[in-house]
From TrEMBL:
Native source species: Nitrosospira multiformis
Gene3D superfamilies noted in UniProt: Carbon-nitrogen hydrolase
PANTHER family associated with the record: DEAMINATED GLUTATHIONE AMIDASE (PTHR23088:SF27), NITRILASE-RELATED (PTHR23088)
Keywords for the protein's UniProt record, in alphabetical order: Hydrolase
Protein name listed in UniProt: Nitrilase
SUPFAM superfamilies: Carbon-nitrogen hydrolase
Length: 287
């Protein structure tokens, strides 16, 4: 499950001298063993906390990357019940950290499918938001074939929430290709996009999509990713990154398990939005 472990150093814990807040994005290469994945996630989150992160995010399906797609159906949990959700709640509380739980397989209306759900916990361990992935990935390219609709039931609600760090918008992986989702969130300060991009599509589009979403929304984008070779033979792209509202990559991890660390500065973001008020200049629907 592990490749090369990497972690960025930081100058001071918690708030930086300029009043910014430290955030972390976790990269890992999950396998079929849920308990093993949770242990690895805990280790990496502990590292993030030791570097002063007050807000951290795990990648899509950090808890299971099964030998076959149907394995996540067997591992599904009811909302607010189960060991994966208990882990997220207890870890957030133990570390005194807000935690974006990548995605978790939750029960759906179909016995043969799950909801791919991004869960957010505050620093007291309370679940404060749930987003069910709306756009389901499908690809047929050469020998590669993916069809998430076969095991995942699509969500239908856009989710944004207030937090001590600003207004947060939630998305998962393939959602990055649909900019209208982010416009539907309204004005958000931080966008989360936990992902498990394939090596093929990631090499071609990953960074471009993340930086585009940051620039067009003048928002920070936190993109924790699965990265590396998995027990099931799949290769995910990795390149976990945090991007600022100007499209600058603040930190990244190309491959392997590790922690990406950066500071978000709301004053800097506000100055950019004042200098380039693109969000106020939208006129398409008023013509």
């Amino acid at each position: 499950m592990l490749d090369n472990l990497a972690i960025r150093t930081a100058s001071a814990p918690g708030k930086a001298h300029d009043g910014s807040i430290r955030i972390a994005a976790i990269q890992m290469a999950a396998g079929p063993n849920v308990s093993g994945n949770l242990e690895e996630a805990a280790r990496l989150l502990d590292m993030a906390a030791s570097q002063g992160a007050k807000l951290a995010a795990l990648p899509e399906y950090f808890c299971i990357m099964g030998m076959q797609d149907a394995d996540k159906v067997a591992a599904r949990e009811q909302d607010n019940h189960g060991p994966i959700q208990e882990f997220l709640s207890q870890t957030a509380k133990r570390l005194g950290m807000w935690l974006v739980g990548g995605s978790v397989p939750l029960a759906s209306s179909r016995p043969d499918k799950v909801r791919n759900s991004c869960l957010v916990y505050d620093d007291k361990g309370k679940q404060v938001a749930r987003y069910d992935k709306i756009h389901l990935f499908g690809l047929e390219l050469g020998n590669e074939r993916y069809a998430e609709e076969e095991t995942i039931e699509a969500g239908c609600g856009v989710v944004a929430l207030e937090s001590p760090f600003g207004r947060i918008g939630l998305s998962i992986c393939y959602d990055l290709r649909f900019p209208e989702l982010y416009r539907s969130m309204g004005k958000v300060d931080i966008i989360f996009a936990p992902a498990a991009f394939t090596a093929t599509t990631g090499k071609a589009h990953w960074e471009t999509l993340i930086r585009a979403r940051a620039i067009e929304n003048l928002a920070y984008v936190v993109a924790p990713a699965q990265g590396g070779y998995h027990v099931n033979g799949r290769e995910t792209h990795g390149d976990t990154m945090i991007v600022d509202p100007w499209g600058v990559v603040l930190d990244r991890l190309p491959r392997g398990s590790g922690v990406v660390i950066a500071n978000i500065n709301r004053e800097y973001q506000a100055s950019l939005r004042n200098s380039l008020p693109a969000l106020k200049h939208r006129t398409l629907y008023h013509c």
